[in-house]
Amino acid sequence: MTTAPSRDALAGRHVLLGVSGGIAAYKAASLARALLKAGATVQVVMTTAATEFVGPATFEGITARPVYTDVFDRADRIPHVRVAREADAAVFAPATANLIAKFAVGIADDMVSSVYTCLTCPMVVAPAMHTEMWEHPATQANVTTLVERGVTIVGPDSGQLAGGDEGPGRLADEEQLVGAVVAALRPAGPLTGARVVVTAGGTREPIDPVRFIGNRSSGKMGFAVAAEAARRGAVVDLVAAPTHLATPAGVTRHDVETAVQMRDAVVKLAEGADVVVKAAAVADYRPAQYHDRKIKKDQQELTSVALERNPDILTELGRSGGAKVLVGFAAETDDEERHGADKLARKGLDLIVVNRVDAADAGFNVDTNRALVLGAGGLRVEVPLTTKAALAAVICDQVERLL
Q: At residue 143, what are phi and psi to the nearest 5 degrees?
């Protein structure tokens, strides 16, 4: 779930919106309106190809400002330099493979790429193209170059593309993009530049190619923490068990399925991390034997499944002492404070978020939660029923305090 920025999140800010010639250009009109609703003034610049999909008059009607499509529009005012200087932040959506390549090598042969070379403000680039173009080594290398220069890349998402194709390459939704602009403009705080690792979702332990042992976790809480940490300027790696949730803006996602896969990914990413937040519901046990063919229901093997313990990732991280701040979660159904305090001490945590999962309005597969945050040194913060996004903000507040 993506949380919409507040109506005043961009109040007083001037945002440059660059639109290039992809089919997703029509979505840029809705993005312009969303930026305005967040309080920004919006200046649109377009490539000539973009005007084949959406006319400048559309954006002029939305923003009440002239749209520039050529460096020779009012050449006496040098528009590409002027609009770049006015911008507090810039977002390029959609950004085609061609535009990203121009940005990476410094080509300035149209209005949008010329403006880009003049910008000194925070920049957000939202790729949108066919899967083959996105996955091409040249495009990936160009994206890496932009990231190394401090550009925020948002998306692309997976979904339906032009011509009926499906796959990665779909423009990120407007709430993600507005959120990325808000994050880019946020003043530096304790999480700015910090390396944060978050785990989310429920692991699956396969019995055979069809069946698995799992749990009810949707991953919403972990994804909310990852999104909030990224909004605060952190460099976030999200290790996600199977889930339908979209990757939060500015977050690097690593998909895993089993507890062992999650352990391997987290231990590696935790090296040098400032913060690790273990929000995932990791299976305590896995089948001792995996059957590479589906077990027929009339076979004796399916009447019982022998189990063996999975690695305890949180305990391993607590003993290693690598991260400056280690946060765990405890999903409980009774006596939650006592169980949480015991887990906090036993696993060597700095914080633990204890939540009841036996209520209909909190816990698994809902957008709300209530929790008790406990910390070393006697910290105790009760969080009444609220959204998981709001709880994520409370957690990040406590992490910042510890940092």
A: -60, -45
Q: How far is CA 272 from the centre of its chain?
A: 20
Q: Are strands 212-213 and 205-206 parallel, antiparallel or unpaired?
A: antiparallel
DSSP code of residue 117: T
3-class DSSP state of 317: helix
Alpha helices (H) in 186-335, listed in sequence order: 220-231, 259-270, 313-320
Active-site residue numbers?
A: 215
Positions of the chain with pLDDT lower than 70, given as ranges: 1-8, 75-76, 187-188, 298-302, 321-322, 357-363, 365
Cα–Cα distance measured from residue 146 to residue 101, given in angstroms and rounded to the nearest whole number: 10
Strands (E) located in 162-241:
166-170, 195-200, 205-206, 212-213, 235-240
E strands, 249-314, are 251-255, 275-278, 285-287, 307-309
The reported pLDDT for the residue numbered 118 is 93
What's the burial of 279, exposed, middle or buried (CB within 10 Å: 0-12/13-18/19+)?
buried
Is 328 within 8 Å of 198 (Cβ atoms)?
Answer: no
Q: What is the DSSP letter of 2?
A: P
Domain assignments of the chain as residue spans, ordered by start: 14-185, 195-402
pLDDT of residue 8: 67
Of 19, 141, 32, 28, the residue nearest 68 (C-alpha):
19
- Residue position matching structure tokens 């220069």: 149
| Three-class SS state of 176 | helix
Tokens of 216: 């009810």
DSSP 366: S
Q: Is the pTM of this model over 0.70?
A: no
Task: Write the class of the CATH domain 14-185.
Answer: alpha beta
End-to-end alpha-carbon separation of the chain, Å? 27
Looking at residue 365, its pLDDT comes to 66
Asked whether the domain spanning 195-402 has the same topology as the one spanning 14-185, the reply is yes
Element (H, E) at 257: none
The domain 195-402 having CATH identifier 1.20.1260.10: the answer here is no
Q: Give the span between the Cα atoms of 310 and 306, in whole angstroms.
A: 13
